[in-house]
Amino acid sequence: MFSGGPSYNKLKTNLRLAINRLKLLEKKKTELTQKARREIADYISNGKDERAKIRVEHIIREDYMVEAMELIEMYCDLLLARFGLIQQMKTVDEGLQEAISSIIWAAPRLLTDCQELKVISDQLCSKYGKPYSQACRENTLGNVSEKLMHKLGVQAAPKLLVERYQRPKIDRIKAAIVSKI
């Protein structure tokens, strides 16, 4: 009734599914971001700078999310490539420690986007134990990717970055206005 360990077939299948879902989500979010960039140009040309700034911050957040998804996809790919190590070793392999810790840490944060990550996380937790999984979720071991933690963090985008995103749009609009005169 209750299994004592992880289901390797389930883990392998969900790793593949997660990679495919993450690729689709990355593509979708990138396309939506391109559309939003055009909207920003419209806001700036209509003098709605504050509205444009809010949209820019949203685009930056989405770009961070896409980059985080790319990292998680890469980690899932790494686990698939070294799946034999996961099956054979009782403890976490040093070469897989960052990938496994990062996936366990990121799973609750990306749960709404990619449900397969929860299954993967649960299987890894079943394999390596509850204390290890709790340490990963809290990052007490310090194995979670710093880049991933930054990308999925809740901090607001730096003002300089927001201005850099807006600047090309403003320059293009000014050039278009000057060329029409």
Task: Write down the secondary-structure element order.
Answer: HHHHHHHH
Number of helical regions? 8
Radius of gyration (Å): 21 Å
In what range is the share of β-strand residues?
under 5%
- Quaternary class: single chain
Mean pLDDT: 86
Major β-sheet annotation? none
**Beginning-to-end CA distance, first to last residue:** 77 Å
Shape: elongated
The helicity comes to over 70%
Total beta-strand segments: 0
Question: Structural class from helices and strands?
Answer: mainly alpha
Low-confidence stretches: none
Describe the structure.
The chain is mostly helical and 181 residues long. The protein is built from eight helices and no strands. The chain has helices spanning 8-45, 49-81, 83-88, 97-106, 116-128, 130-138, 146-151, 159-180. Helix 1 runs antiparallel to helix 2 and helix 2 (49-81) packs across helix 4 (97-106). 27% of the residues are buried.
Which secondary structure elements does this structure contain, and how are they paired or packed?
Blueprint: H1 8-45, H2 49-81, H3 83-88, H4 97-106, H5 116-128, H6 130-138, H7 146-151, H8 159-180
List key phrases describing it.
181 residues; mainly alpha; 8 helices; elongated
Q: Can you describe this structure in just a few lines?
A:
About 75% of the residues lie in helices and about 0% in strands.
